[in-house]
Amino acid sequence: MNAGPSNEPPEGSDIDPRHEALWRMLGRAPMPEPDAWFATRTLARCRAQKQAALTFTRIWRWALGGGLGISLAVTLMATQVQVGPVQSQNVNQQKSVQEAFEIMASTDNSDADSATSSTSWQDSSL
Amino acid sequence: MKSRGGDETPEVAASGKSDAHDKALMALIAQGDEHALRELIEKHQGAVYGTIAKMLGDPIEAQDLAQQVFLRVYRAAGSYRATAQFRTWMFTIVRNLVFNEHRRRSRATFISIHPPEGEASQGVGASGLDLPDTANKTPGEYLLQEEMLRKVDEAILALPEQQRLAIVLRRYDEFSYEQIADILKTSVPATKSLLFRARETLRGALQEYLENEGAKEPT
User: Fold this and answer.
1) B199 vs A16 pLDDT, higher one
2) Is residue B7 part of a domain?
3) Residue A102 CB coordination number (10 Å)
4) What is the pLDDT of residues A30-51, one digit of tens each?
5) Which of B202, B17, B166, B96 is CA-nearest to residue A24?
6) Could you give the number of structural domains in chain B?
7) Which residues of B touch A21 (CB under 8 A)?
8) Interface of B with A in 5-34 (CB under 8 A)
9) Does residue B4 sit within a domain?
């Protein structure tokens, strides 16, 4: 700091200055007084600050609640969207397996038919 | 001026009572009691505002800063722990705000808390300063007194901020060396040293007026 106080007080610093002419002169320049409405204005400012703090808390509460609600809704929607395609993928897989079985079955049938017809051809040739 | 020597037991007792009352008020404020807050403001507004005005030399800025002090006191009421004297704690807030304000002000301008000569005849003017015993003075004496008061304020304002606060707290707020040391966050010997240097500087700056005073004294 600009004062640069040392640990050791200078000689004479212990002398009570209250009887000095300087001390009396300083006393003649009195402390300025605040105006009559100072306390009222300060109280109003304290009240306004309290009100602002309450409003801020209320806004925060609503914002926090709303944010939580929105994030919950988004999470739910996201999980639903994720379930949808998996289900349709399963159905498609089931369909393709079924179709494969049907093709295999029809192939088997045609083989059996041809076998039968050859037999009958053989039989008729006999 | 009140005594602060070794025989100050009644004063210490009174200040102890006052401190206990301040702490009780703070407890009430923490519970939301506005009457307690008003009482606390009304009790300390003179000292807080006066100190800041003396420190800054600007009565308008002092109003705002003094309000900020009480706002901080109000905000801190819930968490306030009565470890130190309430007044000392409150003036630590004053010190922080005033020193911050000094740092904020880049240019060294000051406005005298005494009104200009033309406005001084209004008595308690916009600055709220009541000039003593002006009615019984001749115009010459009155002008001399005006000039002297302005010089005193200018000399105080020219002191380094630590010395200035030390001298204002000691001379006008009547704090003890220990309390000033607590407020300035320094030791008692360092506080005495600050006050000594401040007095020396002021004595040098006001030499002319002190000599005049000395010449008047015997009459």
Assistant:
1) B199
2) no
3) 10
4) 889 999 999 999 999 999 988 8
5) B202
6) 2
7) 210, 213-214, 217
8) 5, 34
9) no
Domain match, B100 and B141 both: no
Question: What pLDDT does residue B102 have?
Answer: 86
Task: For chain A, say whether B54 makes contact (Cβ under 8 Å).
Answer: yes
Inter-chain CB proximity A25 and B206 less than 8 Å: yes
Contacts 24+ apart (CB under 8 A), B18-25: B18/B87, B19/B85, B19/B86, B19/B87, B22/B86, B22/B87, B23/B82, B23/B86
Residue numbers of the domain that contains B70: 16-106
Looking up residue B29, the CATH number of its domain turns out to be 1.10.1740.10
Burial of residue B33 (number of CB atoms within 10 Å: 0-12, 13-18, 19+): middle
Q: Where are the domains of chain A?
A: 40-125
CATH of the domain at B202: 1.10.10.10
Distance from CA of A54 to the nearest CA of B (A): 13
Find the mean pLDDT for residues B30-54.
95
Is residue B197 a part of any domain in this protein?
A: yes
This prediction has a pTM of: 0.67
Cα separation, B180 vs B102, whole angstroms: 19
pLDDT attached to residue A39: 95
Last residue of a domain, one of B106, B128, B153: B106
ipTM of predicted assembly, 2 dp = 0.73
